[in-house]
Amino acid sequence: MSDYSYVRTDMLPQKEPPVSTVGPIGWARTNLFSGVFNSVVTVLMLALVIWILVNLLSWVFTPTWAAQSLSECREIIAALGKEHGACWGVIRERWIQLLFGFYPSELYWRPILTLILLFVAMAPILFSERVPRQLLYVSAAFPFLAPWLMWGGTLWLPLMVAFGIVIGYAVLKVLSPVIGTLGGTLAAIILPILCWVFAAGPVAQGLHGIIPVGIQGVESRLFGGFMLSVWIGVVAIGISLPLGIVLALGRQSDLMIVKYMSVGFIEFIRGVPLITLLFVASTLLNIFMPPGTNFDIILRVMIMATLFASAYMAEVIRGGLAALPRGQYEAADALGLDYWRAQRLIIMPQALKISIPGIVSTFIGLFKDTTLVSIIGLLDPLGLSGSIRADANWNGIVWELYGFIALLFFLSCFAMSRYSMHLERKLRTDHR
Amino acid sequence: MSQLAPEKTIDASAMKVSDEVAIQISDMNKWYGTFHVLRDIDLTVYRGERIVICGPSGSGKSTLIRCINRLEEHQAGKIVVDGIELTSDLKNIDKVRSEVGMVFQHFNLFPHLTILENCTLAPIWVRKVPRKEAEERAMHFLSKVKIPDQALKYPGQLSGGQQQRVAIARSLCMMPRIMLFDEPTSALDPEMIKEVLDTMIELAEEGMTMLCVTHEMGFAQAVANRVIFMADGQIVEQNEPKEFFNNPKSERTQQFLSQIIGH
Fold this sequence. Notes:
The complex is a heterodimer of chains A (432) and B (263). By secondary structure, chain A is mostly helical. Chain A is built from 16 helices and two strands. Chain A has helices at 23-31, 36-60, 70-79, 89-100, 109-126, 136-151, 156-179, 181-210, 225-252, 256-270, 274-288, 297-323, 326-334, 339-369, 381-390, 399-427, and strands at 153-154, 214-215. Chain A has a two-stranded antiparallel ribbon. In chain A, helix 4 (89-100) packs across helix 15. Chain B is an alpha/beta fold. Chain B has one domain: P-loop containing nucleotide triphosphate hydrolases (Rossmann fold). Chain B has nine helices and ten strands. In chain B, the strands form two sheets. Chain B has a six-stranded mixed sheet with strand order 6-7-8-3-9-10, sandwiched between helices. In chain B, 47% of the residues are buried. Classes of the chains: A mainly alpha (432), B alpha/beta (263). Chain A binds chain B through residues 325, 327-328, 330-331, 333-338, 341, 345-346, 349-350, 353, 427, 429-432, and chain B through 69, 71, 90, 94-95, 97-98, 100-102, 104, 106, 108-112, 121-122, 125-126, 154, 156-157, 170-171, 174.
């Protein structure tokens, strides 16, 4: 028998790891004080953070909430013996305007109700496992209810718009067995659009003449503030995702026309700055409209923002599709699933899951891009901040206004980001 | 290649070949671009046959069985499966696919669905089986492949051998009349190969019509009633297993067999 021959007779039990590698002490030791250089850097950075915080907090905490003008703020701060300080009077005086623009104050309940309904409508989609499924009816009604609440007018208009979708569905069911799926789908898209553009308005007016049901109308030029950003953002986000999925599938399609139309659309939209599209929406589009038509400016902006985002969305989702192994398509095919079922049950759930970070990035980017509408004269928070600073009382104020607006946007975008992380964790099924 | 020494005796009582034609391939040709992958393939498979297809890599054996459920399209010749000819008609293709089960080298389970959902998806959406019945059927086949207790886990939590057995169960849930196996054990560790082969042997014992692309020559000797050797896109030799292994006729076959067995 050779020297290294060995047989273990007793198996070793599991032992605790050394104390210095676990717990808070272990964490600090490995992350903050691992070596002389790292310890020095840690102490220096700590000092820097404290210095910034002390200065920032002394600027933020000033008793200027009640001030009526910038000069009054300056007196209060000077009386405290401080050199700098925030002037919060402007926020107290204008926060409602920054939130609602010039929306009639007696009708504030309508955008607030819309926002509450938005959360109720999103709940069954975002947190499907925690809320009753019946809430999906609210989700289905929301796209028709929300514009009516925001703009007001006759109730017949949203009903007519919903009717257009019913027509589309009926056409799809009746025609596609007769003239094929592609023809049926095209007819089901074109007919409702014709119905909306030409029939919905007059018919709704006619019906309103017979049975008047409606609430006070609010003109688009009164829309403004953070409400406007959220309104444009929600619509564009809500529509760009399904549109992006369709475009991504179109780009991968075997049908030449569908493929090249998708590619052309995506490449054109991605090749043009959003500002250009918004200018087209605000000025050029009217030239192509029949004379006398009044196509709402906010609606036009929404359409442009949606198209812009959907082109990016399509590419993000195409990335997800490309990341799926070919075997997934083959397995779906081999089981006899047809194209749409395979897409809905096998391909899209996985491709969208892979694309979540990209999709949410596009959402966040889109939401922040809504501030660009100030350039074509809409009064979003940035547009309003210009007019507030033009007020003699607040002339010279910068940080407080922009800080407030930044806070609003940060809270919204951070919430989206956290939700996407939650979703990724929830959908992780590979290794747990 | 590992040899399967069949430890369990095989019950051949139900392994009967009828004279009903299950698959008829005549004069079939396929090209990848200008590369001629399958050349003048003629093959008639009778119901109840267990055919093993072997050959060097790149010989077109996988392509051949993938043509049978039209994962690959053939450009010339005729393939008739269960009386349905495969053309570009999508309805016929989906019909054939729902009658023909397929097991892949890399399992191709759906990672976002549980094992049970993997097995019930196609019966519910393609065959319109009620959910409850589909679940009962799935549990039946999962017990048959001996993993009923994993039904609520996700594919990523299972070992390779278990995943492949789930893939077999998933195919069986569609009640196929023909099963295709595309190198089902090539991606598995040796100790897992046996559990998958055992499942396949059980399937053969029940009289399933099977076409297997595999290098498991032990399996071929024990179960197959016919072995087909392919090289360069052509069927070079086919025979019953005993003759094929003991007395290969063509030089190409002899060379192949000496390489995979004689080491």
